[in-house]
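agent: user wants the full assembly modeled, not chains individually. Plan: 1) parse entity lines 2) check alphabet per entity 3) run joint structure prediction 4) return tokens. Steps 1-2 passed, two entities, 344 residues total. Proceeding.
--- entities ---
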Amino acid sequence: MNTQFKKGALELCVLSQLAQGDKYGYELTERISDQMSIASGTLYPILRKLKDEDYVTTYLVESESGPARKYYRLTDKGKQYQADVKREWESFVEAVNRLMTE
Amino acid sequence: MKNLKERLDRFSQELQDEILEDYEQHFAEGEKQGKSEEEIVRELGNIEEMIQELSDVDVESGKESTDGAAEEAVPTGIVESGSAVTEQNYTYDGRYEAIELEAAIANLLLEPSEDGKLHIEYRNDLEEKYRQLCSFYYYEKNGVFHAGVKVREAERKVKFFGRILTMSGSFSWGEDDLLLQVKVPSEMPRLSFTTSSGDVRMDGISVGNLQGKTASGDVKVMGSGRKNFTSRPPVETWNWKM
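--- prediction returned ---
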């Protein structure tokens, strides 16, 4: 698959998962890799990029066992961005569907 | 992990630390779920793929910091940029030797100043998501006043589906929703402007030397002591004495 395309789609998955609630890295990678086959490692650079661009913020939560978990939360800017990208995705998918059937 | 550390070597320390931390945490969580190390490594996937992704991040953040440095290097520079800004004003009552304007996609309106001061007003009434892509800047350097509009490309969108979305990334808006209005003091020795698609209107200003350049904007000059004229694209460069 076209890598740019895949990257964009993955980013939308990450944003949309976070739109439903804050998540820590591992939790997020599990959610996504449950549904599609991806190298979980690639999600960390995506998260980092989203953070650099102020679409997400992070905070630490102590865990009962093991190291503190880094949670990701969508910022207002990130919410807006998620909504925009989602809309674009939907109209794109609609167009593809139409073209496949008509 | 050792292999990962080596592969991360070319990135900034901060980025290295963060990714290593993410991976360590990922391992810890995976083990808590009863997964074997091999399993976790397999799930994390090819390090090269992750490094490739990371290179894109690093190049992008690197680019931003260079931009920032360039702006800071301007001597008495005042750089104003605000994503949510809809209106900004600046007034100056000293003398400048020249004014250089770069309006990009914004319309440019040049009028004579009534009080002898230089006034500049930036107005951005675009929709929120487009507004954030534009910022206004101004600074003074060696007696020359610079002001303009910067447009951040809708880079994220373009990237999203490769070329497909660049179409919907194009702007459309009403007349003067994005405007740079400049009140020019009389007898300004030199004024130059460039726009990409922004239209330019000039009404009754007097400058020693006027230079203009636009890719697809309309240019209208009125009441400047010479014959009024309107020019439509394609337009190249003017350079004339008024």
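agent: reporting back. The longest helix of chain B spans residues 47-72. The helical segments of chain B are 2-7, 13-32, 37-44, 47-72, 128-131, 155-160.
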